[in-house]
Amino acid sequence: MLRRLSVARCRLRGASPRVLFLVGAAALFAAWPFGADVGLYERYARLALASPLLHSFPVEYPAASLSAFVAPLTLPVPYRAGFALVMAMAVMALVVSSDGRPEHPGWPSRTCGYLLLGAVAVLFERYDALPALAAFIAVEGARRQRWGRAWAWAVAGGLLKLFPFLLLPGFVLAERSRTGKWPARRAGAALAAVAGAGATQQVLARGSELSPISYELHRGFELSSLPGSLSLLVDPLGLHWSSGFGSVEVLGTDQAAIAAVVAAAGLAGLAGVWGLAWRGRLSVEATSLAVLSVAILSDKAFAPQYLIWVAPLWAYWPVRKGWVVAAALTALVYPVLYSDAIVSVLGYYLATTAAGVRNGVLLVATARWLGTQVAPAFAKAKQSTVVGGS
Questions:
Q1: CA–CA distances in Å: residue 122 to residues 87, 193, 271, 340
Q2: Each residue of 245-304: pLDDT tens digit?
Q3: Tens digit of pLDDT for each residue in 158-210?
Q4: Which residues pair with 251 in a beta bridge?
Q5: Best CA proximity match to 292, nearest among 116, 138, 99, 112
Q6: What is the rounded average pLDDT for all residues in the chain?
Q7: Between the CA of residue 135 and those of 16, 22, 171, what are the distances in Å?
Q8: What is the dihedral of CA 193, 195, 199, 201, to 10 degrees?
Q9: Total-model pTM
């Protein structure tokens, strides 16, 4: 433990100018908030602590997210300031949690750069830094073949916000490849932990354990999502926008068909990534980034905080122009164009169009990156086959 603390202090000293600049910029945005999410978190926390205790849980988040929402209430400062302090600690912990890959030094700088460019406005306005930290530590554990640590952190992150659960199939495949054994005990323990959390929530607030899934299934196309971009392409003149599910939603024609196509493409993408991992064509960190990228692009929403999930994984590799442009366009959509969108139809069109360009850039950039990860593995496998055959 002392050694880990010493390493963390050394990393923090080395990255301190970048971290302090990132935290300072995020604090400035938090001082002039654009959204109402922090207020919603406070309401969830106070409702949960009201009598009877823990009778109310967030509608759109897992029950364990309350731990993030309640924590600021324990600090002797106003809730918004307390929430910013908690997120600042999470961001600093994230930035000093790794040295990155030895073949590509400079991981902390790239992580700070991506976050500053694309997600600084929401770092202290959303709680995603906490599940993103858990997810990244999980990937770090898997990369170092510390499988128990990887599973534990992925499950912890998934109980905060569901997306880290998507890392687990990749961990299963990687562990099987490295050890020759299926991690049945770990999978059983993870299922038991999730089932236990669900059962506890059911006892405390009957019928609430599946509300995050129901929330996602019933929401429409958020303005900056890929399905929202396709709606703009299909019927640009027939679009209109409305507020719902905590965001601005795009309403147009053929949305059921668009939803079905995007969902099918997302499932095919996940299956393809895990298939490549099964055949040993992708490293566990590449599998993790590819899976989260597919999940983000195929979701009904693409909020700017989703970049917090992938920025630390992007930073494993040298800076890619496509990811830089995607991050910059994300910041252009929110908060710049998003604030104008609520006052004019033209603003809605501009924000939706900019988001569509961002989605296209991100899709192409991620596909090209994936090609650079797969091609060397295929070439190596082909060479081994030729040598073996000769």
A1: 10, 30, 31, 17
A2: 888 999 998 999 999 999 999 999 999 999 999 999 999 999 999 999 999 999 999 999
A3: 999 999 999 999 999 999 999 999 999 999 999 999 999 999 999 998 888 88
A4: 240
A5: 138
A6: 91
A7: 23, 20, 12
A8: 70
A9: 0.93
Starting at the edge strand found earlier in the chain, the sheet holding 221-222 runs: 221-222, 247-251, 240-244
Structure tokens at 248: 């601005």
Contact 161, 65 (CB under 8 A): yes
- Helices 306-314, 284-297: inter-axial angle, 10-degree rounding: 150
The per-residue pLDDT for 18 is: 78
Collapse the DSSP code of 77 into the 3-class scheme (helix H, G, I; strand E, B; otherwise coil) and give the result. Answer: coil
**Which residue carries 């909020």 as its tokens?**
303
Q: How far apart are CA 376 and CA 7, in angstroms?
A: 33
**Is the distance from CB of 212 to CB of 194 less than 8 angstroms?**
no
74/62 Cα distance (integer angstroms): 21
Residues of the chain where predicted confidence (pLDDT) is lower than 70: 1-16, 340-343, 375, 377-390
The CA distance from 369 to 367, in Å, is 5
Give the pLDDT of residue 60. 94
DSSP annotation string for 303-352: -TTHHHHHHHHHTTS---HHHHHHHHHHHIIIIIIHHHHTT-HHHHHHHH
Coil, strand or helix at 222? strand
Q: What is the pLDDT of residue 356?
A: 97
- The residues, ordered by sequence, that sit 6+ positions from 134 with a Cβ below 8 Å of its Cβ are 153, 154, 156, 157, 160, 164
Q: What is the pLDDT at residue 245?
A: 86
> Would you list the DSSP string of 236-295?
TTS-EEEEETTEEEEE-SSHHHHHHHHHHHHHHHHHHHHHHHHTT-S-HHHHHHHHHHHH
Interatomic CA distance for residues 223 and 243, integer angstroms: 10
Per-residue tokens: 360: 């296209």
Backbone dihedral region for residue 180 (phi beyond 0: left; psi -120 to 50: alpha; all else: beta) = left
Helix (H) or strand (E) holding 221: strand 221-222
CB proximity list for 8: less than 8 A, separation 6 or greater: 93, 96, 97
